[in-house]
Design a protein that fits this description.
Layout: H1 5-20, H2 36-43, H3 47-65, H4 68-76, H5 81-112, H6 115-135, H7 159-181, H8 191-221, E1 224-231, H9 245-262, E2 267-269, H10 282-295, E3 298-307, E4 316-324, E5 330-335, E6 374-376, E7 379-385, H11 392-400, E8 405-410, H12 420-435, E9 439-443, E10 449-451, E11 457-460, E12 467-474, H13 481-484, H14 489-511
Parallel strand pairs: 1-2, 2-3, 7-8, 8-9
Antiparallel strand pairs: 1-12, 3-4, 4-5, 6-7, 9-10, 10-11
């Protein structure tokens, strides 16, 4: 039994993370404690055991976090339960490798370096590995630790300095403080060594409080625009059926009409592929033009678009956002630039053609690029389509290009009644704080929301209901520290932590 307890402790951390995260227990107050069992498990035994402990903790964490993958693949991807579960296990195993690496380096570092150094080094290592996971193999930065604080705007304002990674760093540091306090006096921190980390934590709290008040004042003084959001709640299983297309469009027309009757929005936003028509024809666009002329508003809608270069080349298909003026003419389009592997395109399909059927239901999309924001009156729209809201750098690119409003069009129907829609909302909140831009979110089945530049969710929908709301949205300008250079915090953490760890290992080898 003694040999098993490190793995039990690691599993406890995995369960604790699920309890802390939205969609699980939604108890962020657990975050300062949740990694302590894992750290205790890593601290005993060999380097090999520490690595296995990290894998176990990671597997429990990611299996609970990503269980919705089975719903996506089985219900909508057409895969059997066996292959859907296998895909979940493989993805969770891959994600767990990063925690295993953290555990292995932590085991060495706890032995080779004093607590006063590890207190700063190990949070940097965790952050750096999170960042590495966000870029390798097209990236999958799903629900890093900091995102669990999304609903606490009074503590997340440092994201405009160092992004959500800064919150992750502090969470890991708090866990290490508690871990070292629970160790013997020889392996613990002295009172003088506590002064700097405690001062940092207090400084973060003070900054967050004051910065939130400052941004609220700036938002009140900034130009505003009335924007409407429509959530059609269209069943994914019938959405693309030709017989259902008119009913889908009529639903969005009806809900949009309800907004124009109760308010006067300058812009109404429909979600990703709200127009499930390919290709669009004049006859299909006619009802939209009538609605726009009567309501005198612009419309931003998700829609599949195609581009034909010449007859000898197969047309390119894009997952796009289309902005229409009140007179029905097109202002511009944005083609989604970060596509979902095996959902919107097949990596290496020339090498592995047998996996192409996985995306036949949704098509093989081409990637677009981020160029100029789409203009509507004083607003300059930076568009994030579905999965793109997970990638902080895309919102940064939009702001650098001049966007003063972020708009997230998504279709979370794929996730079913799972934790994933709550995860998506949590990550979108940080895109607003990092860039100090209002973010408007329109989701087919929810969660749709209006998010202020402070990260405060002004209003949000329930999932799987029809919903239409308007709100006054502030249009802030200027570039945050994070947009300018604070985004480098995470890669710097990885670089410094690996350099220190490698240097320590080299010095230790020379001495032996």
């Amino acid at each position: 039994m003694a040999a098993l307890h490190p793995y039990i402790f690691a599993a406890l951390s995995g369960v604790g993370l699920w309890l802390a995260f939205p969609g699980g227990g939604a108890m962020p107050q657990l975050l300062p404690l949740v990694l302590v069992p894992l750290l205790h498990a890593v601290a005993v035994g060999s380097l090999r055991q520490a690595t296995l402990v990290g894998l176990v903790g990671g597997l429990v964490h990611f299996l609970l976090l990503l269980y919705w993958i089975v719903i996506v693949l089985n219900t909508y991807g057409g895969l059997s339960w066996f292959f859907s579960l296998l895909a979940l296990v493989l993805l969770a195993s891959y994600m767990s490798i990063y925690i295993a690496i953290f555990a292995a380096i932590t085991r060495f570092s706890l032995e080779a370096l004093p607590p006063a150094i590890n207190l700063w080094l190990l949070p940097a290592l965790w952050v750096g590995l999170d960042w590495l996971r966000s870029i390798l193999f097209s990236g999958f930065p799903w629900m890093d630790l900091g995102y669990a604080l999304y609903n606490l705007p009074t503590v997340i304002q440092i994201a405009d300095l160092v992004g959500h990674y800064g919150l992750t760093y502090l969470i890991v540091m708090l866990n290490l403080l508690i871990f070292f306090f629970s160790k013997s006096r020889r392996n613990s921190l002295t009172q003088s060594q506590l002064i700097l980390p405690v001062c940092l934590l207090l400084l973060v709290v003070v900054y967050s409080q004051r910065r939130m008040q400052q941004i609220q004042q700036q938002a009140n003084a900034a130009p505003h625009m009335t924007i409407g959001v429509v959530q059609g709640n269209i069943d994914q299983s019938v959405k693309w059926l030709p017989a259902q297309q008119k009913t889908t469009v009529d639903t969005y027309l009806r809900l949009s009409n309800s907004l124009t009757n109760s308010s006067a929005p300058s812009l109404i936003v429909w979600p990703e592929t709200a127009l499930p028509v390919y290709p669009l024809t004049e006859a299909q666009m006619a009802p939209l033009h009538t609605l726009l002329r009567q309501g005198d508003f612009a419309l931003l809608s998700g829609v599949p678009l195609h581009e034909t270069i010449n007859r000898n080349i197969k047309p390119k298909l894009y997952n796009s956002a289309l902005l229409l003026k009140p007179d029905g003419t097109t202002v511009g389009t944005y083609h989604k630039s970060h596509l979902v592997p095996f959902g919107e395109y097949v990596p290496l399909q020339d090498v592995f053609p047998f996996i192409s059927p996985l995306v036949q239901a949704v098509g093989n999309f081409s990637a677009g690029t981020i160029d100029q924001p789409l203009p509507r009156q004083e607003a300059k729209l930076g568009i994030l389509i579905c999965f793109e809201s997970v990638f902080a750098d895309l919102s940064r690119q939009w702001v650098k290009a001049g966007a003063n409003l972020l708009v997230n069009l998504t279709n979370d129907a794929w996730y079913g009644r799972s934790s994933a829609p709550y995860h998506s909302l949590a990550m979108a909140v940080f895109r607003a704080v990092e860039t100090r831009r209002s973010l408007v979110r329109s989701a087919n089945t929810g969660i749709s929301a209006f998010i202020e530049p402070t990260g405060t969710i002004a209003e949000q929908s329930e999932i799987f209901i029809q919903w239409a709301k308007s709100a006054e949205i502030s249009l802030l300008t200027g570039k945050t520290v994070w947009v300018r250079f604070g985004y480098l915090f995470a890669p710097a953490c990885l670089t410094l932590s690996l350099i220190i760890s490698a240097s320590t290992l080299s010095i230790r080898r020379l001495r032996t």
